């Protein structure tokens, strides 16, 4: 590890940020409640007067930043000048002979960067690696597509085969764990972010080998429990929910949505199957888990949190099979479930109580696809960003149709999801980070 100092220097669902802290936060990739929504102000202008700062970023990453207090933390993958040894490269090729990708010939370095949210200045960089990547990636993936997570005291990073890392807020590595070799379907690469309970780090490890979900102690990275999962590769991030006085872990996969006891790892219930290639992450309110997937077919399931054992279709609150997201995750906001169609700029909004459409499939005005970033909401509005660089804000009240409130194009590909904290909006493109704000 090389560290460079650039400058001198309870939540429901989920438990992501210290409940004793009053700092503003977006502590995990789907926000403070893991729903995609936040109590914040969403800017309605993207001109130079509302742009607080913009910085260039090294390397390539689709990692959504997190924000705690005055710092924003994100990842970036950089190909080094160091070549993988011929023997190791040939060994990796042999392991990947049935994959659709080839491993890189150069070592990969992952930079963890802390950026001051008020100025855009980089406070520190912790360079992890360099690593030998045993498999390649999908053409639209990166070698750093996962997002960090924090409970307000430490930063946790899931790099798959490259290890699990815990950093301090000063950028120092506290501990790391090696959970083994992750072999993703077709060699498309890794992309599952971790989650946190009050004292544990939750890692979902669904791949083409022996899949599992494990809980590591935040203090030292030791294993608290591990539960075997009968699942192929998924790229979905686990969700932590509170049910009465206990915490539960929700994991979405091809063979179903599973609920585990957060203290023991015991399986509490499992739903009927989703689709193959599950990428979207589940969301939840006080009573219901909502999970969606769309690969070949679409499926959205609403499952009671207090279910037990095998959850049959009759046990579901409802299901919807006319639309579902593929890469983007659902947005849960004001008792509505916002669903993109696959990766397309088409939106359906469901009433969470009934599963009935409040808005049937409607093309998003001012938006071109495809869309990988997940929609987020605040202040009675929601925002969508696309791989063509389009960024658009809409009225969250869709009972009378979609109403476009603001639009811009950043002229760069966007894969990371927007982040909203207080009056600031952070947008990450393939090689830049932009901050827009209200009241400048």
Count of extended strands: 35
Mean pLDDT: 93
CATH superfamily, by name, is YVTN repeat-like/Quinoprotein amine dehydrogenase
Classified by CATH, the class is Mainly Beta
Q: Give me the CATH fold name.
A: Methylamine Dehydrogenase, Chain H
Question: Which regions are unreliable across 5 or more consecutive residues at pLDDT < 50?
Answer: 1-12, 15-22
What is the total domain count?
Answer: 1
Q: Give the proportion of residues in helices.
A: under 10%
Q: Overall 3D geometry?
A: globular
Structural class: mainly beta
General description of the model:
There is one protein chain. This protein is mostly beta strands and 440 residues long. It has one domain (2-437): Methylamine Dehydrogenase, Chain H, CATH 2.130.10. Helix content is 2%, strand content 43%. The protein contains one helix and 35 strands. The protein has one helix spanning 86-95, and strands spanning 2-5, 25-26, 51-56, 66-68, 71-83, 106-116, 122-131, 149-150, 155-158, 164-167, 173-177, 195-196, 200-205, 211-217, 223-229, 239-243, 246-253, 256-261, 267-270, 283-284, 288-294, 298-304, 309-310, 318-320, 331-333, 336-341, 344-351, 357-363, 376-378, 381-385, 390-395, 404-409, 419-421, 424-428, 432-437. The strands form eight sheets. Strands 1-7-6-5-4-2 form a six-stranded antiparallel sheet, with no helix packed on it. Strands 16-17-18-19-23 form a five-stranded mixed sheet, with no helix packed on it. The chain is globular, with a radius of gyration of 20 Å. 52% of the residues are buried. The model is unreliable at 1-12 and 15-22 (pLDDT under 50).
């Amino acid at each position: 590890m090389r560290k460079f100092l650039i400058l001198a220097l309870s939540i429901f669902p989920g438990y992501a940020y210290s409940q004793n802290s009053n700092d503003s936060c977006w502590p995990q990739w789907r926000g403070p409640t893991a729903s995609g929504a936040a109590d914040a102000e969403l800017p309605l202008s993207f001109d130079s007067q509302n742009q607080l700062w913009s910085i260039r970023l090294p390397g390539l990453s689709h990692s959504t930043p997190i924000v705690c207090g005055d710092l924003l933390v994100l990842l970036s993958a950089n190909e080094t000048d160091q070549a993988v040894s011929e023997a190791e490269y040939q060994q990796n090729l042999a392991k990947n002979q049935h994959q659709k990708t080839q491993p890189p010939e150069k070592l990969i370095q992952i930079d963890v960067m802390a950026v001051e949210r008020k100025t855009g200045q980089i406070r520190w960089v912790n360079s992890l690696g360099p690593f030998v990547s045993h498999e390649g990636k999908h053409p639209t993936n990166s070698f750093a597509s996962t997002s960090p997570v924090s409970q307000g005291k430490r930063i946790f990073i899931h790099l798959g085969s490259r290890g699990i890392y815990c950093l301090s807020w000063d950028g120092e590595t506290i501990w790391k764990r090696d959970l083994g070799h992750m072999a993703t379907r077709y060699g498309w690469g890794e992309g599952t972010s971790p989650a946190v309970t009050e004292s544990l780090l939750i890692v979902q490890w669904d791949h083409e080998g022996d899949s599992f979900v494990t809980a590591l102690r935040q203090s030292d990275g030791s294993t608290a429990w591990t539960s075997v999962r009968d699942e192929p590769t998924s790229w979905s991030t686990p969700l932590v929910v509170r049910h009465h006085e206990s915490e539960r872990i929700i994991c979405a996969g091809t063979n179903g949505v599973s609920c585990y006891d957060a203290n023991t790892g015991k399986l509490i219930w499992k739903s009927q199957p989703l689709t193959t290639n599950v990428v979207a992450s589940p969301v939840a309110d006080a009573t219901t888990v909502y999970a969606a997937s769309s690969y070949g077919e679409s499926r959205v399931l609403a499952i009671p949190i207090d279910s037990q054992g095998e959850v049959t279709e009759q046990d579901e609150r409802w299901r919807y099979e006319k639309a579902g997201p593929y890469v983007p995750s659902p947005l849960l906001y004001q008792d509505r479930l916002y669903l993109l169609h696959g990766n397309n700029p088409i939106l359906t909004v469901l009433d969470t109580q009934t599963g009935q459409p409040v808005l049937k499939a409607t093309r998003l005005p001012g938006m071109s696809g495809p869309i990988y970033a997940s929609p987020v909401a605040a202040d009675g509005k929601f925002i969508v960003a696309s791989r063509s660089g389009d960024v658009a804000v809409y009225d969250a009240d869709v009972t009378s149709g979609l109403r476009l409130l603001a639009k811009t194009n950043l002229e760069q590909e966007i894969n990371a999801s927007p982040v909203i904290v207080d009056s600031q909006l952070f947008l990450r493109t393939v090689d830049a980070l932009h901050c827009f704000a209200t009241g400048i």
